[in-house]
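Go through this fold for my students:
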Amino acid sequence: MESAKQQPPTRQESGRVDEGVLNPAPSKQPSNSRSDSVLPTHHNHGLRQGLFRINTAGESGRSGIHPVHLLKVCFMSTCTLSMLVNVLWPFVPAAITIYFARPDLHVWIFTLNYIAMVPSANLLGFAGGELAKKLPKVFGVLLETTLTSVVEIVLFMVLIHNDEGGNLIPVIQAAILGSILANLLLCLGLCFFFGGIGREHQSFHEAVSEVGTGLLLVAGFGLLIPSAFNAALSGGSSNAEITPEELMHSTLVISRSTSIVLLVAFVMYLFYNLHSHHSIFDEVLEFDEHRDEDREKERNRAKLTLTECFLAIVISLVCVCLSAVFLVQEIESVVHERHVSDSFMGLILVPLVEKAAEHLTAIDEAWDNQINFALFHCLGPSIQTAFLNAPLAVLVGWGLGKDMDLNFEIFMIVLVVLSILVVGNFLRDGKSNYLEGGLCVLIYVIIAVSTWYYPAVTREGSAH
């Protein structure tokens, strides 16, 4: 058993997971000991207790800042695809320059900043991943996910700030749902597809899939309630005596109340992952590290120091925030000049660029047979969007006096709920293959085509 754990399985054997590693047999200890648990428990194998790990794959062997080494490590990144994305870095200064030099070129400003966000987000994801390897496993993955979610939060905040009379609210609402769809269908689908190539299947632990799908079902329910409430009472479809103004106000109150409840649920989710059940996820992720097919290559790869990680994160955050601000300011012009619908802009275009780094990381992990890590990077951002980013957008809008609510278009929220059900069904058996991944991607393509033709709709009882 020990030798099997130390040597990662080959690509052909990776579909057959050693259940004894994930669910070790009870040791000869009293029945009330933690080792008797059916689920895995985490043990510190000689690692120093504290915030940072040592003697791990994240150790660089250096200290301080070495500019040349920093640039080289960041450019090489962790995989070929991520390295190729770094070729787009010249677009970053070009996007900033054209914004100040030619403010009248709205489409060019939007396009260049859209492209510039990809390498910036990629650096943010890489630096976050480097930092995560120096931290306890679960905390590191959650921190990495949070850092990549900063791009989304910045976009939402800028959109809310620039909103006048509710003109950008539909874009924000579509972006919230589009972010969830992109992670559940596109990112997870690509992970299953590329991870399943050359393998009969990939197996993941139920602790990851069940918690993730359960939370997403709750999120779908929470996000659906304000929309269902508004749809049931608007347009004369109900005999209830309520004016459009009263309906709008009630929907707004329900949205804000729901946002507070979702934030409470997010805190519970963090406590569950980081404190009460962290040992389960630590053991699962530790097993994934052992079956990483690029484990030796990753171990020998040059890495960033702790200081360089923070420096790279700051640089990437500045670039991402600048691109996000410039991008958002041109959305309205692009929508009107190029006749791109609010729905397509928010549901498809914005989520694709804001989640680029997360998608690249997850696909690379699935390809290397680290499917549990990939699930964390697919389900985690969706959970954060539903339980943290969306409620923050509503509450910040409340503070700024903007009528930001969770009254989504029924068409869009139904797509999200159905997607959650489809993905949950695929995750139910604890196995994935390229067929399931391909089907998820095809569903996303169908949604993208449908959204392109979905017109802007003015809802009754809305301030915009």
Summary: Residues 1-52, 459-464 have pLDDT under 50 and may be disordered.
